[in-house]
Fold these 3 entries.
Entry 1:
Amino acid sequence: MRRREDPELLSGKGRYIGDLTRPGMLHAAFLRSPLPHARIVSIDAQQARSMPGVHAVLTADDLPPGLGAQPCTHLFQGQRETPFYALTGDRVRYAGEPVALVVAESPYLAEDARDAVVVEWDALPSVGDVEAAIADDAPLLYDDWPDNVVAVFEQEMGDVDRAFEEADVVVTERLRIQRHFACSLETRGVLAEWDPMLDELTLWTSSQILHIARDLLSDVLGMPEHRIRVRVPRMGGGFGAKFHFYPEEVAVALAARATARPVRWVEDRLESFLATVHAREQVIEATMAATEDGRITAVKADILGDLGAALHTVGYGPIWLTSVMITNVYEVPNARVRARAVATNKTPLGSYRGWGQPQANFIVERLVDSMARALDIDVNELRRRNFVPPDHFPYKSLHHVFDSGRYADCLDRALGMLAERNWPQRVEDMRAEGRHVGIGVAFYVENSALGPSRILNAGGVEQGGYDISRVRVEPGGEVTLYTGLCEMGQGVKNALAQVLADELGVHPDQIAVVDGDSHICPYTGYGTGASRGASVGGASVMKAAGIVREKIARIAAHMLEADTSDLEMEDGDIFVRGSRDRVVTMAEVGRAAYIRAIDLPEDEEPGLEAVAAFDPPQMAWPYGTNIAIVEVDVGTGKVEFLDYLYVHDIGTVINPMLVDGQIHGGVAQGIGTALYEELQYDLDGQPLFATFMEYVLPTAAEIPRIAIEHQVTPSPLIPGGMKGVGEAGVIGAPAAVVSAIEDALRAYDVRISATPVTPATLLDLLDEAATRSHGAAT
Amino acid sequence: MSVPVAQDARTVNLTVNGEARTATVEPRLLLADLLREVLGLRGTHLGCEHGVCGACTILLDGEPVRSCLVLAVQADGRAVMTVEGLADDDALHPLQEAFREHHALQCGFCTPGFLLTALYLIEADPAIDERDERELREALSGNLCRCTGYQNIVDAVRDGAVRLRTTKERA
Amino acid sequence: MKPPQFAYLAPTTVDEVLGAMREAPDDTSILAGGQSLMPMLNMRMASPRVVVDLNGVAELAEIDDGGERVRLGAMVRQRTIETDPRIARRLPLLADATTHIAHVPIRTRGTVGGSLAHADPSAELPAAICALGGRLHLRGPDGDRVVAAHEFFLGPLTTAIEPGELLVGIEVEPPPAGSGWAFLEVARTHGAFALAGVAAVVHIGSDGTIDHMALAMCGVGGAPYMAAWLAEMAIGERPDEALFDHVAQRLHEEIAPYDDGHATAEYRRRVAVVLTQRALPAAAARSNGGGSS
């Protein structure tokens, strides 16, 4: 099914944040700290204020008294507070932290004036490495703390120490996952308009959290929600980084009030690398124990998460999630994790597709590869022996309850694809020719359908997990769906329209979907993320549609003088089963509901709409297999894909075209993690990146074709059976790619423990392996 | 010899999507900003402003260029084609149709740049659909996409070449 | 990311360009294809008082292949080098090297002179022009002068162009008829700057020994590396693996590469060896019509 928004987007008519204008609109530019850690001695904006076309320069001194700190909504137990504000006035803690805002008549003039603002900095000792940050002599980011540790999370099940004592085989991995980030092609942006008469704010923002952004604005500005209208226009990708509430959203709003003019700010690419939340960076030590017949008995992991300078909107959530996903799909009775979130002088850490799950998957699947090698058994056989079997669900993992899974079936199907394509033989043949070819497998599980509100709240998340939909049949019979979920390219509006069309027996073209306006769209608990749109959103649509459907049936039954139980709905007609000539149209029902009350049953209220909330009883747990087939050029260290296979189970598939698109994009991002993307800092926290020359995104020439098969097992918990797919592709790809590279280099016994695997690091690893084997030989 | 030193605004006459347009601009104004902010053609997107991402790619006298790396004054006397010039009234261009059929876009931000690059590549090599996968992917590697993993874009460009050939044969 | 203010001059002749450059001799940027200068302006890493645009100077955009040597105006576009049949016939190495520069929408604007005058250490064209023994034509207030490619590149973003001078063109004598060539590079992604690259030309005489061989590398030092000792080592030798390994090992000792975020100096050194070991046989195989282009 083709997407409804495509004609608009294909002809350049999509209106993204940078395309919006308002009469009298001004443009903003931020002055940011060039230093990782410094006191601000003074800011001199006098010259900037006098420049042509400049309307205002705001610094921390110009912020209203009582302005709140940027909120953190994920308040996990024991975490410290790291308050920061829309503009920083005293002390910056990362390069890129905003300290002043210039408002002028064009972006050109705003940048001219920004460059004329003079700041005197007093540089402070700084730290840009997470391990250095926990050393005794590390510079402190927050003076009244004893160290830089923002939070420690620990969880345990079973008797881990005993399991390790009794283990036949123990393997340990010390892993490092690099700092990188969502990097949507459209950067962030804000347009604020303040009505001085009504004292009302309208804020357009490129954001995945429509109502949450409004609520947080309300908190920070100290004004009621109903005087704030947040609107989200077309979004050029989000991938989690726009799941956050940023200082710029507050600062631009205040600039609009200060100038009494609409003000627009579009993040430029250079500042996007510093001002948008970073993700993923962790150093992990993990150990796995097993019996000699290949039963995994225990896993433990010590995770150091590099949080950057402060807790952003989602706190240290991603680091926490890594720790509790440490047993993946395996029935491991004993596990112990410690996750520490550590402050460094770097951009705050936040969300990126998959949250902490790609890291957890990398840890476990690396351990599984190691364990298979140590036990000298086939790694997929090791997986099979340890998968949670289908009859053990619901299964209590370290922290979560998994709803369902046919893991072995999924793995076998993927291995079947591999065999159908004759890869095992082809790899043998290529190796015989002296080529370095390898196959890597990673199995993942994903935490989706976030989430049960009570579980989220009990865990410290100050956000709900439900979704609310409003379904309205209009007087003319067309249908309008109002959703609080945001369309960012993933096609959620199409998926929801499809669900609604099926429920009401109308064509999706008869349905308009309204999103992106906090004044008219119903509240959604958690924003658009966590792979929850189709599952939680879809279920709330079904629930609201069910109420409307019943009312349609009552009205139609009355008009047809039939019994509601005898009616069917199809193609916008409501008819008596078996006799299509006893029919009323949706338009006739709509007309009755709004205009001709005389046609309604006597006790029926006018109107034809319903609002319904769905709060999932548990999270859902889709899963899947990634198989990467790669070739390594041992002369240059370049890695090339020969094939990529993917089999997953996400429950009911609403729209295979959209689902495949999500997987393609997710896997491509996972390949970016494995081989290309890194936000490098020096040890003091000075960024070593500035542009797309340093931050390498893979192009069409690097990403392989991905062959996808769907195993469909509807979720037992979600009406409709959808589990969710948004993050799935990104989770297992890094582990699969790295495993394939190791397999390609099996002759050299190369071990990979860090990403990205660049050509230079790969040649170093080959050297190291050569030294190791040389040492072993002598 | 005298060359005027002009710090001030100057007039640019150009053709955009077949229409003559005139604007008075500062010399430093980027062509992308002329199209977007002055002429209101906001289909040309700015994704990086340093020539890497390709979102702002337009055709300048028929050749693809980064409109973030060209000054508006440099377009004086020249012909620009933007994404807005592709569709004929309400009917999508065959290449746009191919993108839609193959789900070659998600957020749509990179799409205008891909369309114009692909249009040029197809015109330069009408049998581009017969090229092997690697050649086609390398030809498209100057445009970044963060949503699709490129696979459907590659398929759409292949199909677009076939559709364009068929359209031309019919004409 | 918007350019700062500057005075913009758009002369139409080389003489006018030289005159325009006198307006602010120490504070003028020359705008050729703009694929390096424009990003620097957008990032405000460059803020010249005057920008002199060469795009209206028709005489700089000409290709003359009438004589023994091929003359390329400084403003000949990289896309033209890539697609012009005259270049493909007479300087296939140059056409080949050009296809490695970024992407088509960059090459449609990017110029041969712009790339040479910018002198990025990882750029392809400087290495290719060095391997071909090109001569760079400069014109300044004191008249014309010609600088050989190997004396033109002085270091990262540094050339022999004096203040007030303009690179007007490049003159290249095609290697002996029947020469084979190869251009190989390694980059993080397709079209990204080369981590290391090699341009090689080999001609094998009728006796089966090498009578012409040239090699230059990019990405392995501040300026293209030219193996001046190559002729002595290779002329009169048979084009076999032992010779190529010998050349590669000598290179390994000679080059002085650099570290950056993408690769270490040691990596560049090693890959320079590997690329050389691949490029030389590939070029030799193409000599005298061997293989296809």
Entry 2:
Amino acid sequence: MTEAQTLSGPLAGLRILELADEKGQFCGKLMGDLGADVIKIEPPAGEATRRVGPFLGDVPHPERSLSFWYYNTSKRGITLNLETADGRQLFRRLAAAADVILETFPPGYLSSLGLGYEHLREQNPGLIMCALTPFGQTGPWRDYLTSDLLHMAAGGQMASCGYDEVDAPGAPPIAPGGGNAWHMGCHYAYIAIMAALVYRTVTGRGQYIDVSIHEACALTTEAAIPNYIYRHEVVRRQTGRHHAPRLTPRTQFRSKDGTYVTALVAGRLNPRYVKDLAELLDSYGMAGDLTDAKYQDPQVIEANRDHIIEELVANFIANLPAEEVYHAAQARGFTWGAVRAPEALVDDPHLHDRGFWKQVEHPELGRSFVYPGEAAIYNGSPWRISRRAPLIGEHNQDIFCGELGLSLPELVILAESRAI
Amino acid sequence: MSLPRALDGIRVVDFSWVRAGPWATRWLGALGAEIIKIEWPENERGRLPSSTTPQDVEVNLNTSGNFNDTNVNKRSLSLNVRTPKGLDIVKRLIAISDVVIENFSSRVLRNWGLGYEELCKVKPDIVYVSMSGYGHTGRNHHYTTFGPVAQAVSGLTYISGLPDKPPAGWGWSYMDDTGGMYGAMCVLTGLYHRNVTGQGQHIDQAQMIAGIPLTGPALLDFTVNGRRSRRDGFPPGNRAHWPGTPLVNNYRGPTVAPHNAYRTHPGDYNDWCVIVCHADEEWQRLVQVMGHPAWATAPKFATLAGRLQHQEEMDEGIETWSMTLGKYEVTERCQAAGVRALPVQSSEDRVEHDPQLGHRQMYREIEHPALGVRKIQNAPFKLSETPAINHLPSPLIGQHTREIVEDLLGFSHEELRVGYADGTFWPITRQRFAYMEEMLR
């Protein structure tokens, strides 16, 4: 057993109660994979996110959602109906011993059940409660309905993403896929919760945190806001590269295998860069006239910028597979990359060197599957997936009987009355 | 009395530059940590080149708008760490700090003589967060990234765009933002662990790799079902499904229609509104909001299957209606009726027109010595006991060298002057800013 396997994650010992749908489930995963004991509390029929595809073998079933699997690793699962008195009573008992509650209900919902922070803190002054909601707890849009796409529109992502007119005439602004509005909200929620936890290690005091997904998105467009604040310029969309107030040279080139390479060339064309570029292209016999000594003159470079980018670089990439360009360029110090589809990452030897891919057992299926791993290696307290996503109510007996001391007959009564 | 802040008493030695690292420490500063930014003008990246300096202000090391927004809540120490004297000074600083953070290539800090083992000799429980492109281990650790390259290689670029077009990708360095958030997450997690166990550690974050977990469902569709993302109809633009292609989930939530962006009046560049209906009832409410146009009441649109199949015709019909209204008007009418709709908002829209961001005070003004009073982006979280507040403008380069060297490290004023004369605190051949002359009096 290596040293890393004997260590526990940095959040070991923390108890998190997660009442979260698609908006917050990733935040719970981030904490669970780092060692926290995350108890996912679902309605008796299971969280709605279990009905989001894709599904194992394309067979829709609440225990077969790959989306749910992915976003709920390293959590235990219980069911509770907070609309019943018994359900609320059990929740209060769990909250009394919890370090953090993460919830994504509409503003005011938990308070209306007598389960708001103002109620729960009385029995647990160290409690940290984080409400992660579309717009926060206040304001004119507080109760607006949303979705990932809606957030990417109002947050400014779409205004920055799309196409050059030449690539897709009349194209709309494009929202990148993959549920990234939820990711942005969850990253900031994690930061806020961890800050509150650090504060609590010093003072013992808990607090309430109000996180707005809309604000998290509105923050995540890099220089778009500074361009407006400092220069009153509004950026335009460009294919596969930075938004800008004015058209900039392209950075995405089609490769021989029909995919693309991101090659950051424009803005970097000084004599030394051009010399290195000439050597890279020449190693494949495609340098053209770039090895000519005249290219050590910055004025000549500037006058030939389009020739270098649109002819020499574009031609070089067009005649090679994207992966070959990527590695050949990086080996010579160029910050270029292949535009990969997600599945292309699975065979990446660098990721294997870092132990990135994890085998996760699904004992109920008698199978294990490959999951993506960690953004960062914690050398002193490792990240790991401690278990696959919970089945509906999988840990009801462990928690309600093992921890809260209920008997099995009492558990039956609670199930019959739909409290759990 | 001002409220306490979550990271009161935490000191961070910040070697980070360009954007991802500074975006991380910006938040640590807002949460109350003391951020000391170590800079050297001869190899500075982040202040220059600047494309966000106001038109009427000279471009120099202290006038980048983007730098100002990214580096609030920090102090700046100009120091040549590549000299024995500079290295000794920074070690003295590390000895009284909690965190070291940097976003250089994988071997830079070690080559300076500041690898993790060395840091531990100076401060045994140091939390060291490195934010490189590919991590400090693995065969490609020496590869380099900027946001767009991290996005391309991690799979994020590919999942944005229209079918049969080049990837649209991300219109900015999303992985600088996200890499920065992970940097802050690693620091906070490492600090929590240290406070509980007394142990520091090296946390090895990788910008490219941090992008991969953001495509989880697509990856599981491949590792579990064998389905590739490189397929007909993917990525599906703004839709959940592209008509005429295999009907599968495309990893943006439930497969529904309408799910698109629609032009609004008067049809300018950012006049678009997105509308999404998650259920038949939401569609019926949209039909009502649109005033029951004849096309929309056709039976083929009454079911989800019909709406997915006839998306082109449906989207044309919706846009005919949306073009009669402004994007905020479409939003308000839809939301009042219980229909999911929000406007595409430009930067100007967010700063000037968004009533929610206005209500929540998303942009509050801070005065900067060279840029004047400017709006700064605030935290998206409100902590009841320890609010995160932007309390300092970004530092001028080397602005706080004297107070850090003399007040914090205990050097004499004469030693400061000698350090300027011998090139430790500022290059001998480089002109000093006026505030430096003031500092040396």
Entry 3:
Amino acid sequence: MPEVTYREAVRDGIAQAMRADDRVFIMGEDIAEMGGSMGVTQGLLDEFGPDRVRNTPISEMAIVGAGIGAAMAGMRPIVEIMYEDFLTLSLEQIVNQAAKHRYMSGGQLTVPLTIRTQGGAGWSPGAQHAQQLEAWLVHVPGLKVAYPSTPEDVRGLLWTAIHDDNPVVLFEHRLLYPVKGEVPEQLEPIPFGRARVVREGTDVTVIAIGPLVHRTLEAAKQAEEDGISVEIVDPRTLQPLDEEMLVASVKKTNRAVVAHEAVTRMGFGAEVTAVLQHQAFDYLDAPIERVGAKFTPLPFAPVMEQYVVPHAEDVLAAIKRTVA
Amino acid sequence: MAFHWSATLTGGAYTPGTLAKVERETAVGEGTLRAFLHDMLLIRRFEERVEDRFRAGELPGFLHVAIGQEAIAVGVARAMEDDDIFASTHRAHGHTLARGSNPRRVMAELYGKVEGVSHGYGGSMHLYDIEHGNYGANAVIGGGLPAVTGAGLAFKMRNEPRVAVAFFGDGATNIGTFHESLNLAQLWRTKTVFVCENNHWAESTPGWQHSPVWDDMSKRALAFNMRSLKVDGQDVEAVYAAATEALEYARSGQGPVFLDIPTYRMHGHYIGDPQVYRSKEDREAAAFHDPIPRLRERLGLSDEEFEAFDEEAHRVVDDALEFAKNGTDPKPEDALKNVYA
């Protein structure tokens, strides 16, 4: 199997979908000649031309909203929101429009729209370019939310998102773009709502998303040295959520940690924790531990930024608390 | 027979920053005008009945009527082609009926019945009827404008002879979606027509309090170098002619058109609105500009002839009401359907 970066996997997923279906096109800020602020869409303009690879004005409401309208009119648009912080500008369109047209119309309409965005800490971009807001969108009925952590997952989930008849918000993490991984020769769509066991273990389950999957892998190696066997499960899609697999893993290990880069308070881990306590209460040997960012905006100074976001050591500490 | 109408044509397609008066001729026969009267009266009687039934406590939710603005709904809707689509606002009964949705199904929606155009999921502020091109009445001011731009983009990309139409009021011209949508539409020359129904009220706030260009919304279009047509919203014949022109231009792929249509909201923002913010003189002025007597006069109808139109409208509304009241309530658990495709 070829090894590609996460960035290349996203690009390949978009390109393959565009080759396969004329209804697929992409629009966003600086995605054409520049190839996107993260270089993800480089080369697409050359292959598909300006009609299908559209630079937009800085107009997040119109970018998402035009995607909604094109989707309702029979296209399968992909829109890119340059930084997920800017999702806030388009939230009206995502929450009130994309998520609800099907419902309010009594099932007459579909909105097959894919919204790609990226974010995360690590480059010290400060408080308006590094947030993790995935939990906001999981709260809205009518949306699907994916947060792939590997090249294979992002390509397969992106394909599914583009071909899904519902609006999908797909989160990419800035630090994942250079991460390499093997992908199948032929693109294999990954169904939504199927978690993946990243690593098998017996003592504690860590349910992690995005970059925390990788940080948890590091933590698991260290825990192994202390004789703790860690199982890692990546839900991959947050809505729909593979509750069955998460619960099954925790019933096996009897301990659970949830980990993401977003702030802990009201983060996605809060929902997972609620699911686990309800469905695996009698199996738990320790309180469920939560790992996330401290409750503060992302600061600029690198030392402060690194202090706020969770690292492998934080996951390791949480693991150890569960087995203490 | 041919009627004359005049409109003020502005925009980048001509000479930016200047106004050019154009005189046009259009062949709207008397039969067509009679059809317009039929539609306008139907909408008027429908909405009056909705007000009446709301006050009687039969209708849930928030309801807004467009009494006084019927000439815009009918003039634009009648100019549209079968495959054209539109998005509307919280004041959507007229647009929906004018595009041919069954009055029974529109009324049933207001009663929250399964037979309703949105099957009870939408209500007055969310009327949808895809078969008749209604891609959604929107309860967020300006909420539908980006989607209409995107639909117009899809028609352009696929080279289809279709147009997406957005209805909105003057209040919407101050929200971000309006500016982002007009900019994008003009930039990409989408097949879109923006219909600004300027009734000079944003809920209770008068135009002069909410916009520096409240009495000439075409200046908004000018800022985006977009072609615009200003037309009297109480003159259905003129609205029809302007809409025909705008739709033809957009359909050709040359770009969007902004219809600047001053009109009068004869009633309150919502049903039950005591309109404490509005003078008696202002209300009287609105009533004075009622488009229905004007069209009746245009057609030179006798009392008997007009009565015949009116009776027909009442009959259709009676039937719609009867149908709606006898409609089927959704099962409560149907609320869980249609969340995802």
